[in-house]
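Slide 14.
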Amino acid sequence: MQAIVTIENLTISFSSMYGKNYAVRNLSLQIPRAKTLGLVGESGCGKSVTAYSLLHLVPKPGVIEKGSIMYNDMNLLQCPDATLQSIRGKNIAMIFQEPMTSLNPVFTIGYQVQEAVELHLHLRKAEAKDYTIALLGKAGIPNPSSRYYSYPHELSGGLRQRAMIAMALAAKPELLIADEPTTALDVTIQSQILDLLLTLQKSQHMSMLLITHDLGIVANVADVIAIMYAGEIVEIAPTKEIFNNFLHPYTQGLMSCIPSLHKKTKRLATIPGTVPIISKPPAGCVFYPRCYRGDANCLHAPVSLIQKNKDHRVRCIKA
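Slide 15: predicted structure.
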């Protein structure tokens, strides 16, 4: 697949009084053009930090130590601030995890979405208002001309998330980053939000990076799935291939955690341990302490992504 964004050898660290910790290490990834890439992993594995790096928004004390992020032959990590400012929201837009904390509580929904419209499309006030109301309707907000005047606290979680989607799509971006867009929403609203994102992605031929910890969410949305663990991509393949022929022990553990309607079980499987804090590059496989397949051979040297078949790569010598 042709890529809209290519990440090469990205390394991001956070320094504290206890030393330096690596949130992302030598990460290489491609986001396909006009397709959806699902980035999956448990909390703390570096998914959101990777997304923030695309817009150069890694929070302090985070530092991008090395790597490149190529977008349309432009390295986003070397762009001047003015260039990045023009790209953010217009070419690459982002939906953040918590709409209640992302929206300003003292301004109406219409005002905040219209601000993005005026900034990127340079429309007059009256034109921008009409465009904003149409945008709110497109995002699935009922009675948008009335909701235009609503404040964030007057909307449900699902409607606030739809307002965030409207704001992100104001300038018809080429790439939309959705960072856990269904967090804290009930299952019905989750499904509606995902259907909306998928419909908009296909209708606008937009690329999308969907970040989540739930494989069930990306099953019907993503074209390609990348499994992330402790700052590394441990497996990447087309969606059907991941579900039908997963190779990495961590991916197998995630699959085992999904409830099934066809099998009766008293207890779901779990992956023992937690995602480690990486203060220095490990000698071997970072998943070794939690892996049921591991042996001494896994600790000899860092493990690279291995091409197993067409479009399927895995970071495991036992795969």
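Speaker note: The mean pLDDT is 90.
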